[in-house]
């Protein structure tokens, strides 16, 4: 293993900074050799709140990492999960009158729409642009229709943006660490690309992730990230609900949910919790079925908020009923995972897929491929130079 093959990824999420280092092996797979996770500092309300504090913790951990690996990094890839991106989806058009769709037509549409976004979103920076939809004469086309003939062409682009000030602050932080930001990715995009590649090139779907005290849903359409939404609740509201109704302590509830299986078909009416679950409190006869019913009722409410009654997703639910569900296994609340499965069973018009073992290596392997090879639906604007007055004059005359 040679040092110059190392790549540095820095993830910034709701709770922590995570530093990943790895290399690409002979089979073109990313191999993780270093990981360090430290509490989030200098970030508040999904924004950079204290530049010096953020710089100090990042600089210190990069220094420790470089000392351990005996290697100096010059660049990094950022993975962002807590900067509340903005999503814009809109289309450009070209009248063809029976002629071919040319690459120049598509380049013109792309640059025109990008210019519109830049003009009206002065305080935002575009991180991702996706070629999300191609329609030729009212017919959806799977790929860029260059060379095809038609009368009217519509091209939809999906933009993902974050605050320009936040991005500038990140550039300052890493520049002070002597690191250039090579690429910046929204983590939902990486996850979407991973799921698409892993599940037979599935192009359109929702993904739900439930953590301890937060949740997220994102929508991927035609291999393009089109929307995501964060929620300030997670599995903790179920634990707290059980604790409140049964008067059990939070730790006791977590112990129960971690060590017994609460399955609908396996619970009898009279089965009660064993005495071992009443640590530091008086034993009482509490039915397991009561615990299950409380958790199931709250899980149904969570799903209603995330997707079933989420008005922000009403439009997108017309196009997909596929949902990938990711329950954080690190919580060790195995009963809750099963209870969410039961909750989804009542929604049989949705196609559910419960994710297992989505490791850091899986996500980083996908991120590494995106860095080096791009993504099939990513769009890259082409710089257009300002034409001289004479050139514009001849264009106006001769078209």
Net shape: globular
Strand order of the largest sheet: 3-2-1-4-9
Taking pLDDT < 50 over at least 5 consecutive residues as the criterion, the unreliable ranges are 383-399
The helix content is: 25-40%
| Total beta strand runs | 14
Summarize the structure.
The chain contains ten helices and 14 strands. It has 399 residues and is an alpha/beta fold.
How would you characterize the overall build of this protein?
- With 399 residues, the protein is α/β, with parallel strands linked by helices.
- The chain has 10 helices and 14 strands.
- The protein has helices at residues 51-69, 103-120, 164-176, 187-198, 236-246, 250-259, 288-308, 334-345, 360-373, 389-398; strands at residues 7-12, 16-24, 30-39, 75-80, 86-95, 124-136, 139-141, 152-163, 180-186, 205-210, 215-221, 224-231, 322-327, 351-354.
- The strands form 3 sheets. Strands 3-2-1-4-9 form a 5-stranded mixed sheet.
- β11 (215-221) and β12 (224-231) form a beta hairpin.
- α4 (187-198) crosses α9 and α5 (236-246) runs antiparallel to α7 (288-308).
- The model is unreliable at 383-399 (pLDDT under 50).
């Amino acid at each position: 293993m040679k040092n110059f093959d190392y790549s540095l990824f820095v993830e910034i999420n709701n709770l922590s900074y995570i530093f990943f280092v790895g290399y690409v092996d002979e089979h073109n797979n990313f191999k993780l050799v270093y990981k360090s996770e430290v509490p989030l500092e200098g970030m508040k309300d999904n924004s950079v709140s204290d530049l010096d504090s953020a710089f100090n913790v990042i600089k210190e951990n990069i220094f420790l990492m470089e000392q351990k690996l005996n290697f100096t990094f010059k660049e990094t890839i950022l993975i962002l999960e807590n900067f509340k991106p903005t999503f814009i989806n809109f289309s450009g058009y070209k009248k063809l009158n029976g002629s071919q769709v040319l690459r120049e037509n598509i380049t013109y549409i792309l640059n025109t729409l990008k210019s519109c976004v830049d003009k009206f979103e002065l305080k935002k920076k575009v991180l991702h642009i996706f070629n999300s939809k191609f329609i030729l004469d009212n017919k959806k086309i799977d790929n860029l229709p260059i060379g095809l003939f038609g009368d009217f062409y519509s091209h939809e682009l999906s933009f993902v943006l974050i605050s320009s000030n936040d991005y500038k602050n990140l550039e300052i932080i890493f520049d002070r660490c002597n690191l250039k930001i090579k690429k910046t990715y929204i983590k939902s995009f990486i996850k979407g690309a991973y799921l698409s590649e892993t599940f037979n090139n599935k192009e359109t779907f929702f993904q739900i992730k439930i953590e301890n005290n937060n949740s997220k849903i994102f929508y991927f359409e035609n291999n393009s990230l089109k929307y995501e939404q964060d929620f300030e609740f997670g599995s903790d509201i179920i634990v707290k609900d059980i604790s409140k109704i049964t008067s059990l302590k939070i730790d006791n509830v977590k112990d129960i949910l971690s060590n017994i299986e609460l399955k609908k078909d396996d619970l009898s009416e009279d089965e009660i919790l064993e005495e071992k679950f009443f640590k530091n409190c008086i034993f009482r006869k509490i039915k397991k079925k009561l615990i299950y019913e409380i958790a199931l009722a709250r899980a149904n409410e969570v799903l209603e908020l995330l997707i079933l009654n989420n008005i922000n997703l009403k439009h997108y639910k017309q196009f997909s009923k596929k949902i990938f569900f990711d329950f954080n296994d690190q919580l060790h609340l195995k009963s809750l995972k099963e209870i969410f499965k039961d909750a989804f069973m009542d929604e049989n018009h949705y196609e559910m897929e419960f994710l297992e073992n989505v490791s850091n290596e899986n996500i980083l392997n996908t991120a590494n491929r995106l860095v080096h090879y791009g993504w099939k639906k990513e769009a890259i604007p082409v710089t257009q130079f300002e034409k001289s007055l004479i050139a514009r004059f001849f264009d106006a005359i001769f078209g």
